[in-house]
Amino acid sequence: MSLPLFPVTTVGSWPRPPEVAEAMRAYRRRRIDRAELDRIADEAVIGTIAYDHPVITRESVAAQRRWAEISGADRIHYCGAYWGWGFHEDGCWSALRACERLRALEPAVKLGLAA
Ligand SMILES: Cc1cc2nc3c(=O)[nH]c(=O)nc-3n(C[C@H](O)[C@H](O)[C@H](O)COP(=O)(O)OP(=O)(O)OC[C@H]3O[C@@H](n4cnc5c(N)ncnc54)[C@H](O)[C@@H]3O)c2cc1C
Fold first, then answer.
1. DSSP per-residue string spanning 31-51
2. 3-state SS assignment for residue 31
3. What is the model's pTM?
């Protein structure tokens, strides 16, 4: 099988306006053919946006492990799904980790021991 270096596919759910949902029903009932279904589906597309998913490599995993070296240094905290596998829960977990770090600083800030 010949695939591009970074193969892509549809992710998440595919929103279907009523005319596409109806066309899909009509296709299943063999009232329209595949070409007609594709035409209706293509017409319903308002625009397309290209997104990149984080590429997980040995190097990126090694870099993720060094988060503590940069996050919080100079009062800049880093979070985002790219610190994990690139999914919703990674973004959430990463944000909580940054919040934890901020909360850890709170008493020191109150005492004027940290900026
Ligand atoms: C089409 C699609 C489907 C997906 N489906 C799933 C799924 O089914 N399940 C799942 O777990 N994950 C899914 N994901 C992945 C999930 O959406 C991401 O993991 C998550 O949104 C990443 O969250 P984030 O906060 O790290 O980054 P983002 O949500 O990208 O947030 C970054 C924010 O920073 C802002 N920003 C960027 N640059 C600057 C700047 N210079 N100054 C100020 N603001 C800036 C951006 O506008 C954006 O609001 C999907 C992603 C896409 C694109």
1. SS-HHHHHHHHHHT-------
2. coil
3. 0.69
